[in-house]
Amino acid sequence: MLQVGVIGTGMIGQDHIRRMTSVLAGVRVTAVADVDPAVAFRTGERIGATVFATGEELIASSGVDAVVVCSWGPTHEQYVLAAIAAGKPVFCEKPLATTQEACLRILEAEAAHGSRLVQVGYMRRYDASYRALKSVLGTGQIGAPLMMHCAHRNASVPGFYEKEMAITDTAVHEIDMVRWMFDDEITAVRVLTPRRSSLGGDLQDPLMLLFELSSGVLVDVETSVNIRYGYDIRGEIVGEEGTAALGSLSPVHVRRAGLSADPVPADWRERFLAAYDVEFQEWIDALRSGGRPVGPSAWDGYAAAVVSDAGVLALRSGERVPVVLAERPKLYGMEVAA
Ligand code: NAD
Ligand code: ISE
């Protein structure tokens, strides 16, 4: 049984605790910590886990074999570094860290440890539709890929959400997905600002991002974070001989009263429910069998941060911004995980 400690028991922390306590096999949540002690105590009491005053104390505990970091992005670096220093595997929700410099510090620490400990929560790699799309691409049946069209739509976002978060917090999922889907790197980013939605207050919403890949493939990503009607994730690849798109998720299609309708998920928890389950079960199984994570690595977290930084610069300047990655350390090989 893998004993897991969860740092950050907010929205996604609770969701991952629920799956580790009542859905998945081979795992037990033995410890929790949150900067808000009331939230941590309520959670600890409910699931019978030890509550620690700080994430660092949780990481040091002998009752914790592996750590899950679900706190706010700017706090990820300190906990990931502490887990590496303790030699414990750590699953960090996206983003790995909020600056590429912080991601580089994590890469250095993991390289000094000598083997992989870090996995980053880019769950789209575990989603059945994205996996099926990648598999169609791999068979060559639509020919060489030329373009991909993506949309990432949230019904609404919290009050603290700022315009650059459409890139660093939202489109960062497409950044990782695109690198994985095409086994390629993004080499430049442009960001266009369409007419502003009146539903987003001062937010510059929507945005239109354009990624160039080293193969010449172009990927456009619409982010709309006040779309109201639900959580809608789209992706279509245009190849030389055909196209392939993410399919409908609904097991049932309803036609009534002059309408033909599929339900739209409310949020990421509903849309990626199964993907998070697979992501965590594969992580748990990997740690229990070989002791090493095999999903999205610290390198993937770093690469996403560099592209995301380029996107922020492109948004501010209106210019095309090239992406320059550091040399990939040997530890991460050339494989694209999961
Ligand atoms: P949230 O605000 O609901 O929860 C975060 C929790 O972390 C809060 O309870 C807060 O008190 C706690 N916290 C903050 N600083 C802390 C610290 N220094 N030490 C310990 N606890 C601390 O946020 P959320 O929506 O659950 O997001 C958390 C992380 O998960 C973010 O990095 C976010 O980007 C990521 N996320 C990923 C997905 C996904 O689809 N993979 C979806 C949502 C959120
Ligand atoms: C949130 O943090 C996520 O990661 C969701 O998957 C994404 O859709 C949302 O825009 C982010 O704020």
From TrEMBL:
Subunit structure comment from the entry: Homotetramer.
Family, per entry: Belongs to the Gfo/Idh/MocA family.
Pfam families according to UniProt: GFO_IDH_MocA, GFO_IDH_MocA_C
Gene that produces this protein: iolG
Listed name of the protein: Inositol 2-dehydrogenase
Enzyme class, UniProt record, top EC level: oxidoreductase
Record organism: Paractinoplanes hotanensis
Keywords: NAD, Oxidoreductase
InterPro entries membership: Gfo-Idh-MocA_inositol_DH, Gfo/Idh/MocA-like_OxRdtase_C, Gfo/Idh/MocA-like_OxRdtase_N, MI/DCI_dehydrogenase, NAD(P)-bd_dom_sf
Residue ranges occupied by any Gfo/Idh/MocA-like oxidoreductase C-terminal domain in the UniProt entry: 134-323
Domain Gfo/Idh/MocA-like oxidoreductase N-terminal: 3-122
